[in-house]
């Protein structure tokens, strides 16, 4: 029997604002008017501030003493930083994990992959979130808690960049094809191929972002 999950006002505000940010409905570098936002969401300032602080921790917002919270802008420099860190950590972790994964972990990875396949023809916050879950499912069985925590942070920072990457026509199709190859190699426990495919996949995303993002 399924239990009913009751979300706090802070959690609800967090999810709504997170989706708006991922959908680019909130403009970068423009101060967030908390009074108007609190009224629009129908919540008091305390749960709203909790949600904004959580989004800042996720790397989606930044705060300034005199300007309050702002949506973090997408930049080539940040993309270079985030994706280079992923290239350093993720391929090796996934390669190690594919050799260590037990039946339950493999079943979970397959479940997430099948959900990713369902959303492979759309560029939505849900699709980007499942993309993150898929990548993290491939590294979790390595049983490196510090590494996994670092990767979780990097993937949170990656989400808007992944969405940006998927904007051009047919980009979702090619991205899913790469995910299919990675998943097949991972399930076959082919660590060497997993490492190569994830490197190629991540490098390809970064190469595309260099063309899509303005140089400042």
- Read across the widest sheet, the strand sequence of neighbours is 1-2
- Cα-atom Rg, whole angstroms? 18 Å
Structural class: mainly alpha
The low-confidence parts are none
Number of helices: 9
Tell me about the largest β-sheet: 2 strands, antiparallel
Helices and strands, in order, run as HHHEEHHHHHH
Helix percentage? over 70%
| Net shape | globular
Strand content: under 5%
Features:
9 helices; 70% helix; mainly alpha; 216 residues; two-stranded antiparallel ribbon
Short description:
By secondary structure, the protein is mainly alpha-helical. It contains 9 helices and 2 strands.
Task: Describe what this molecule looks like in 3D.
It is a single chain. This protein is mostly helical and 216 residues long. Helix content is 70%, strand content 4%. Strands 1-2 form a two-stranded antiparallel ribbon. Strand 1 and strand 2 (68-71) form a beta hairpin. Helix 5 runs antiparallel to helix 8 (171-187), helix 6 packs antiparallel against helix 7 (145-165) and helix 7 packs across helix 9. The protein is globular, with a radius of gyration of 18 Å. The N and C termini lie far apart (54 Å). The model has no long low-confidence stretch (mean pLDDT 89).
């Amino acid at each position: 029997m399924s239990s009913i999950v009751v979300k706090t006002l802070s959690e609800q505000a967090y999810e709504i604002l997170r989706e708006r940010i991922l959908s680019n409905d909130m403009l970068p570098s423009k101060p967030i008017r908390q009074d108007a936002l609190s009224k629009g969401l129908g919540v008091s300032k305390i749960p709203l501030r909790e949600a904004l602080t959580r989004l800042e921790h996720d790397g989606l917002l930044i705060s300034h003493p005199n300007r309050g919270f702002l949506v973090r802008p997408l930049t080539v420099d940040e993309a270079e930083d985030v994706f280079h860190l992923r290239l350093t950590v993720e391929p090796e972790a996934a390669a190690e994990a594919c050799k260590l994964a037990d039946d339950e972990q493999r079943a979970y990875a397959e479940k997430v992959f099948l959900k990713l396949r369902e959303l492979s023809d759309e560029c939505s916050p849900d699709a980007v979130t499942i993309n993150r879950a898929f990548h993290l499912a491939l590294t979790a069985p390595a049983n490196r808690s510090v590494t996994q925590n670092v990767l979780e942070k990097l993937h949170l920072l990656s989400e808007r960049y992944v969405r940006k990457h998927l904007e051009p026509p047919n980009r979702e199709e090619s991205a899913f094809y790469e995910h299919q190859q990675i998943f097949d190699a991972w399930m076959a426990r082919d660590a060497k191929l997993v490492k190569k495919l994830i490197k190629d996949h991540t490098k390809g995303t970064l190469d595309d972002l260099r063309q899509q993002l303005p140089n400042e």
